[in-house]
């Protein structure tokens, strides 16, 4: 399947450098310290944050910083073919490690020694870019929980075909079989399952764009790598703008309810 | 979440239940407000989301065509229940923490449905050698007590919402016939008849009284509980499809009778209310003639 | 027997209050707050390259040279003098660990409690061994924050006769930002129950505490005593009112709780569990507050 049509549009009508629609909401659970629901196109993710709280496992307590404990899980009905186990396979464990690594860099862990923050992500519907969507949802959930971070982490997945990077691949795009190189941002599941190079990037936009996570699947020529990374970072910046708007709206609503502008 | 109670809080709850007024003002046979939505996931054939106070479960139904078990005398399909306690609900469910609870609920659902009255599994047969296997997957997103009842409500609602594609058998050159699924998944499909599907009611013994729909704190004060599967079929009236004891304590035979009676009354009310809701939803969907695909997390 | 089920189709969509204007002074994590020359770094900020940036999403507060960012929701951050309610998680050597909805468990030293009977003496070895007799795992206490340790955990004390172990009642957990710091956190409400508003978001509702009773430091508990039905109804109604005020984000103090209670009398206690009833009562409470402050 060709990711790009002859006019340069993708299967779902997007341009290569366009991310999918993002809908999100903070504070969906009452019992977790922080929670968020995020939709990136048809990929739907729920994230919950517990903490910071006293570390429960004595063996893992860190004396000088906070312990970040994550879990990535996919509901068995999230994919079009039923998944046999929600977690515990190698891929889920790998993605869990990616989440931990990303947030270890973003959360100001040195401020809370000997405590623990739990971040749990559940993918309800998988249409490509699962890791990126989980990072975005977890970022929102951490903000909802009031956990101090260096900034809002935003992530995007980028593929490449036909001389152009394609951002935010969906599942169909991820599965397309494309030999050539065009960066396409925000792949969906169809786009993701292709044998094309896929790069997931998590950034901390701000003064300097810090890259917190860089993960490449498949292979790409050294010359094209920079273009893909560049496109991915731009895509993440677009995601960052969406997340920031959502956070500002949420904080305004809550602070107004609490009547903070009067106090 | 780990629920700890002081001795004084425990005593307060137990005395309250025995006096007939629980911590939130409910009586022994009152349920907390329940909210049911169907058609919330687009990757499934049927789905439902049930919120019972702060308990939140999401159920998806998928189906695959499998070989019929040759050892069976009558040809029928299969139904499989799978429950996943997501860590989102409480950190205790992370890793393998939630497996015990999940195992309990899925076994209860499987056993409650394993009778010929619940679902007509013979309708799932598509050819002489193949039949549908229906998978009902429950994900527990938030836990506020009484998971079993919520999961059963979700399972019945999701099964009611499920649409299975019509199947045509194509004769082919090889010995095996080819199965062809219709292209139009929405209109050329059929729905399961769930009028006799059971619901589960957990009856908890607190002190010397029995209550339904226990909150997290009340569950901690429960010595022993009975899970009752209740179905009502137009032909045979009220049926009890499961009675299972759980908890560390023991029950006297008289207690058991009272608890089953309370469970059956509650189950009948739940069945009536759920049927009414499903009819309302069905009527609205037919009028609008479109699929609802929002998960409702964005609005509520 | 009452079973009430709703589905989204028949719920009247109570839409949000329309367009909410953005607050001034609002920041998101990573946003620049001020140049750090001349300003002190408070909660919710961090320095990078000589500039103060926000680490949480919230509202910027400046008191003289101290700049903080207050998030709308977070774990409890203690201050000296706060009244808190906590649950004992562990009895260690010469101290108890108490869970108070903060980032680390708080500590209650053996030297910071009153002995039963109100005796004042140095704690002996016997007292150490008897610690579990005084307070054991699961018990609820009311206490005051005595000091903050360097890692941010709190040290509590119960050296006042009105603090101590809590007896029969109901605990409601809410967001700590809903409980403002005020002169007193112990209220005997006119409806016939007593409420302790912990600054950490734990609210304790129990029967009326008789001030004249000689306090034994709160360690004696009568577990055989059965609270009468009328008082239970008041406690149940109050606990539902506090929950609905919290879920509708109304600040919790004695006035709001009392007005919510009065407005709720037109409903049955269990009806207060419904979301629409709760929203309506919260709206009326806000309206009543608005007219009173004018």
TrEMBL record, chain A:
It holds the Pfam family RNase_PH. GO terms for cellular component: cytoplasmic exosome (RNase complex); nuclear exosome (RNase complex); nucleolus; nucleoplasm. It comes from the Eukaryota. It is found in: Cytoplasm; Nucleus, Nucleolus; Nucleus, Nucleoplasm. Keywords: Cytoplasm, Exosome. GO terms for biological process: nuclear mRNA surveillance; poly(A)-dependent snoRNA 3'-end processing; rRNA catabolic process; U4 snRNA 3'-end processing. The keyword Cytoplasm applies. GO terms for molecular function: RNA binding. The keyword Cytoplasm applies. InterPro entries: ExoRNase_PH_dom1 (IPR001247), ExoRNase_PH_dom2_sf (IPR036345), PNPase/RNase_PH_dom_sf (IPR027408), Ribosomal_Su5_D2-typ_SF (IPR020568), RNase_PH (IPR050080). Residues 18-148 form the Exoribonuclease phosphorolytic domain. Gene3D superfamilies: GHMP Kinase, N-terminal domain. Component of the RNA exosome complex. Non-catalytic component of the RNA exosome complex which has 3'->5' exoribonuclease activity and participates in a multitude of cellular RNA processing and degradation events. Belongs to the RNase PH family. This is Putative exosome complex component RRP41. The lineage of its organism: Eukaryota, Metazoa, Ecdysozoa, Nematoda, Chromadorea.
Automatic annotation (TrEMBL), chain B:
GO terms for cellular component: cytoplasmic exosome (RNase complex); nuclear exosome (RNase complex); nucleolus. InterPro entries: ExoRNase_PH_dom1 (IPR001247), ExoRNase_PH_dom2 (IPR015847), ExoRNase_PH_dom2_sf (IPR036345), Exosome_comp_Rrp42_subfam (IPR050590), PNPase/RNase_PH_dom_sf (IPR027408), Ribosomal_Su5_D2-typ_SF (IPR020568). One of its GO terms (molecular function) is mRNA 3'-UTR AU-rich region binding. This is Ribosomal RNA-processing protein 42. Residues 31-164, 198-265 form the Exoribonuclease phosphorolytic domain. It is found in: Cytoplasm; Nucleus, Nucleolus. One of its GO terms (biological process) is U4 snRNA 3'-end processing. Keywords: Cytoplasm, Exosome. It comes from the Eukaryota. Pfam families: RNase_PH, RNase_PH_C. Coiled coil: none annotated. Belongs to the RNase PH family. PANTHER family: EXOSOME COMPLEX COMPONENT RRP42, EXOSOME COMPLEX EXONUCLEASE RIBOSOMAL RNA PROCESSING PROTEIN.
TrEMBL record, chain C:
This is Ribosomal RNA-processing protein 4. The lineage of its organism: Eukaryota, Metazoa, Ecdysozoa, Nematoda, Chromadorea. GO terms for cellular component: cytoplasmic exosome (RNase complex); nuclear exosome (RNase complex). It comes from Plectus sambesii. InterPro entries: Exosome_cplx_N_dom (IPR025721), Exosome_RNA_bind1/RRP40/RRP4 (IPR026699), KH_dom_type_1 (IPR004088), KH_dom_type_1_sf (IPR036612), NA-bd_OB-fold (IPR012340), S1_RRP4 (IPR048565). Residues 169-206 form the K Homology domain. Pfam families: ECR1_N, KH_6, S1_RRP4. Residues 75-147 form the RRP4 S1 domain. GO terms for biological process: CUT catabolic process; exonucleolytic trimming to generate mature 3'-end of 5.8S rRNA from tricistronic rRNA transcript (SSU-rRNA, 5.8S rRNA, LSU-rRNA); nuclear polyadenylation-dependent rRNA catabolic process; poly(A)-dependent snoRNA 3'-end processing; TRAMP-dependent tRNA surveillance pathway; U4 snRNA 3'-end processing. Keywords: Exosome, Nucleus, RNA-binding, rRNA processing. It is found in: Nucleus. GO terms for molecular function: RNA binding. Belongs to the RRP4 family. Residues 26-63 form the Exosome complex component N-terminal domain.
